[in-house]
Amino acid sequence: MDRKIKVAQYGCGKMSVYSMRYVYEKGGEIVSAFDINSEVIGKDIGDIIGGGKKGVIVQNVKDAQAVFKKDKPDVCIITTMSLLQDVKDAFLVCAKTGVNAISTCEEAFYPQNSNPVLTKEIDELAKKNNCTICGSGYQDVFWGNLITVLSGATQSIKKIKGKSSYNVEDYGIALAKAHGAGLDLATFDKEIASADKVSDEERKKVIDSGKYLPSYMWNVNGWLCDKLGLTITRQTQKTVAQTYAKDLKSSTLKMTVPAGHATGMSAVVTTETKEGIIIEAECIGKVYAPEEFDQNDWKILGEPNTEVVINRPATVELTCATVVARIPDVINAPAGYISTDKMPTPIYRTKALNEYVK
After folding, report:
1. In principle, which of 12, 188, 193, 248 could form an S-S bond with 180, CB 3.0–4.6 Å?
2. Spatial separation of the C-alpha atoms in residues 176 and 252, rounded to whole Å
3. CB atoms < 10 A from the CB of 143, how many?
4. How many C-beta atoms surround the C-beta of residue 294 within 10 A?
5. By its UniProt entry, which SUPFAM superfamilies does this protein fall under (predicted)?
6. Nearest partner of 73 among 21, 134, 10, judged by Cα
7. What is the helix (H) or strand (E) element at residue 237, kind and residue range?
8. Cα–Cα–Cα angle for 33, 39, 44, nearest 5°?
9. Residue 172: its pLDDT value, please?
C-alpha cells in the first residue's frame, strides 16, 4: 500500500492511550474515534494520547456507521469489552460497512468454541462486504504463538500446562466485574462459579444459545488445538474466587474490596484431545495486592520438557502493540471471521505498517 493506513479507534479508554499512539508511531493515522462516555466524547484524541492535538474528535458510537461510510478507514481497532456479545454492535457496524476490524476482546480471539452462532453471523456479513474481523492481543503471542512455536521444537507432547495472571485494575470496570471482583463469596458462587457447575450436555446448550461466559483460556485452548491440529474430545472449565487477607482498594471499581471477598477469579480450562495431548490452562485475573505482579508460566511436558516463565510482562502495552502489529495481517487476510491461528506468526514491524500490505 502506497499510503498511510487509515485507522478508526472504537473505545477511547485505558487501552486506546497505547493503541492510538502505537498506530502513529508505526506510520499509520487515526481518522476517527468513538466512545459511549459523555466525558470522552468531544475530546481531541491528542488529549487522550498526550503530545498535542491531532485534529480527530471522539464521536458517539451511534454515529460510527455514517462516519465509516464517509472516512472509509482501512481497519478499526476495538478496545472495549471482553465478551463477543458485548462487542457485537462494534463488529457488526464494521462488517456492514466493509471495514476490517481487530479487537482486544478476549473471547474474540477464538469465539468459534464459545459463541458459534454469533461468530457465524459476523462471518457471513464480513464475507458479504469483503472485510476481515478478528481478535488479538496479549494472548495471541504469549498464550498462543509462543506455545505453538515451542511445541515445534518438541519430539512428543503429553501435556501443555499454562498459568497466567493479570491485574484487572489495568483493563477497566467491565473486565473487573466479569471476574467477580468485589463480590462476597456467596454472590460470586451464584453469579460467576455456578455457570460452570453443569454437565457437558448442559454446557453445549448454553454455548449454542450464545449465553456462555467463557474464561479467556476457553478460547485460547480452542485456538491452540486448531493451530496444532488437535481434535478436541472434551473441554471443561472451573472458576474459583481469589481472596486476600486484607482490604484492597480498587480505583477501577471505585471501592475497597473487603478482606475475604473476591478480588477476582482463577479459571482453569482442561481440554482433552483425540491425539492424547491434554491442555490445562489457567488464567488468574484479580485486583492485585501490593506484592503481586503479572506472571506468564507455561510448561510443555513430553520429550523433552520445556518451561518458559515471564515475570512482570507489560500486559497492556504488549496487547496494544500486538494488535497494531497485526493490522497488515488483518488487511491481507481473506474476508470473514478469521482467527489469528490462520494468520502469519506475529513479527516486529521495522517499517511503516502500509509497507506490509499486499
Report:
1. 188
2. 8
3. 24
4. 20
5. NAD(P)-binding Rossmann-fold domains
6. 10
7. strand 232-242
8. 40
9. 78
The type of residue at 299 is K
Looking at residue 38, its pLDDT comes to 96
pLDDT reported for residue 326: 98
Q: Are 2 and 358 in contact (CB under 8 A)?
A: no
Q: Which residue has the cell 478469521?
A: 338
- pLDDT, tens only, 322-356: 999 999 999 999 999 999 999 999 999 999 999 99
Opening angle at CA 77, ends 72 and 81, nearest 5: 135
DSSP state of 339: -
Match 486476600 to its residue by C-alpha cell: 244
C-alpha cell at 186: 456467596
DSSP for 207-221, written as a single string: HHHT-----HHHHHH
Nearest one of 51, 49, 52, 58 to 21, comparing CA atoms: 49
Q: Looking at the DSSP assignment, which residues form a beta bridge with residue 281?
A: 162, 269
Cα atoms in the 13 Å half-sphere on the side-chain side of 103 = 32
- Residue 116 C-alpha from the chain's centroid: 17
CA–CA distance, 300 with 279 (Å, rounded to integer) = 9
DSSP letter, residue 143: I
CA of 73: how far to CAs of 94, 101, 121, 135, 261, in Å?
Answer: 10, 10, 22, 18, 45
Phi-psi region of 239 (alpha: psi -120 to 50; beta: other; left: phi over 0): beta
Bridge partners of residue 186, in order along the sequence: none
Distance CA 324, CA 319 (A): 9
Chain Cα centroid distance, residue 295: 17
Residues of the chain with pLDDT under 50: none
Catalogue all structural domains in the chain, each as residue range(s) with its CATH number. 6-137+317-356 (3.40.50.720), 139-313 (3.30.360)
Q: φ, ψ for residue 221 (rounded to 5)?
A: -60, -40
Cα 80 from chain centroid?
10
